[in-house]
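Sequence, structure tokens reproduced for absentees:
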Amino acid sequence: MKKVTIMGVGPGDPELLTVKALKRLNQCNSIFFTGSLIGDEIRKLIEGKRAFDTSSMTMEEIVSKIKTEVEEGMEVCVIHDGDPSIYGAISEEMFLLGKEGIETEVIPGISSFQLSASLLGIELTCPGGPQSIIITRLPYRTDYKKEILVNRDSTIIIFLSIHLVSLIQSELLKTFPADFPVAVVYRAGWHDQLILRGELKDLEKMVRENKITKTALIFVSECLRYSGKRSNLYSPNFVHSYRGSQ
């Protein structure tokens, strides 16, 4: 069975590609990529290869073109920004490729939320704070219920919704106090990345003032103001199977 590789190439910094992704990318001679989301540094890695920008294609057009490339004997890689398992539309892509008799291999990538957490210098599940992470979006133009998932005891990471920041702020204020810490990371991993911190009541204001309308994540978390509380993991007062009492 013929096979193509769907891979995540990370949020923009080419040094964040996995070794496996880079190895497979070098092996492929036909590359499909979303031009609006793949930065110049990653594009340098595919120079000299047959490359197809899928920004203006439908999924049917993408699959049809991939099929043609595979039938011509090309080694095909479909590259996604971040990790393809998060808002990557790969379920439908793999389904339609399967109907054409084409097997898919998926290589994960580092998501923009992981890089953003490192840029913010935070642990997403911090001692004394949230122990769960919610990845959500406001699916305003889809058939899904038009709301974000919010839980007071979780770190909330909001994708693909920065253009709806007014609605986002209103929804969050139903659960969180106005002075709750928030952050916005714009184009994480790109040369013009921007990191903003503030309080929930000022979220819309700081986004508007910086003219951010896309390609940004919103973080809502108690971990953004770490209190210094210790976890049990390395506490001298906590015993587990690898560390006895002192």
